Amino acid sequence: MLALPLLWLACAIAALAYSQQQNIPLHLALMALPAFLLEATFYYALGQEKWRAKLERLQPATVALLLTAAGIAPYCACAPLFGFFDWRGLAILAGVAGLASFWYVLLPHKGGTDLLFLLVLTAIFLSKLPSLQFTNPTPKLRLDILGRVMLIRTGAFAMLSVRRVKGVGFGFWPSGSEWMIGLAWFAGFLPVAGIVGHFIGFTPFHLPPPGWDRIAVLTLGTFFGTLWVLAVSEEFFFRGLLQQWMIQWLHNEWAGILVAAMIFGSAHLWLHKFPNWRVSILAGILGVFCGLAFRQARSIRAPMVTHALTVTVVRLFFS
Fold it and tell me: At how many degrees (to 10) do helices 145-157 and 87-106 cross?
């Protein structure tokens, strides 16, 4: 019962610390806080199996309607306060959330529909359409992140609570064995990535800026931020869904792992600049190791660890 209030308190403390560190005026941070607390609440609910079970007692159309309403809630909480509320922007966000939420209410639960769902959501994510409806009051106060996170959790909710996929192992905190599996496959990935990165001319290795307190905060912030947002979303869609579907469709486990990894790598062609083929190659290799972690653990929480550790190392020593 205390988990959600503690989450709100942690978010408020983090917002205050971040605003002071980035010289964001306190009144702007306080204006943005309700929207971020709303998103944090919805996102937290996504990872709570008991909460989702209660939601799933409702009719699928009712669940989809609630997900659509939740999709526009953070926008409604911050846009009027910052003066960028626009009915067109609200309609776009409602349309995106509604598309994801009602997809499996209106369309059959079949392989082709599933694959098209992933392609459509990926295209929307890469287009940054939800994020573009938010205006950042300062460069460091990134309200546009709310649009990206909304799309991630609405798509995941649609799959879990409307489509009701099984065998994913969705959650935000790995078990002890999942930590170890994720760490082991990360250790296996490192030398392979190092050799390939050297031959393709990836960004040279460098030490992080001095200051152990700063390094510790950066490391922990990067790792858990990646684990709970980027890794959980990408591992859910690429390993929990796509890899399993590919194995079923191709009738071959190893082919399914490789094809899902290749698609994962291809999705990174658009990272920072196009075509970012060096990152794409390394992401494809990471996809194989994350796929093997999922195969061993039968849960996305293990490859989440592998994924988050990789991103943390890249940002510390190669960015």
Answer: 20
Cα separation, 131 vs 22, whole angstroms: 21
Q: In sequence order, what are the beta bridge partners of 138? A: 141
Structure letter (DSSP) for residue 143: T
d(CA 96, CA 164): 20
Tens of pLDDT, residue by residue over 23-72, are: 999 999 999 999 999 999 999 999 888 999 999 999 999 999 999 999 99
Instruction: Match 């392979």 to its residue by tokens.
Output: 192
Residue type, 175: S
Tokens of 111: 């392989």
209 pLDDT above the threshold of 80: no
CB contact at 8 A, 107 and 113 = yes
Spatial separation of the C-alpha atoms in residues 206 and 183, rounded to whole Å: 23
CA distance 101 to 91: 15
Q: What pLDDT shows up at residue 214?
A: 67
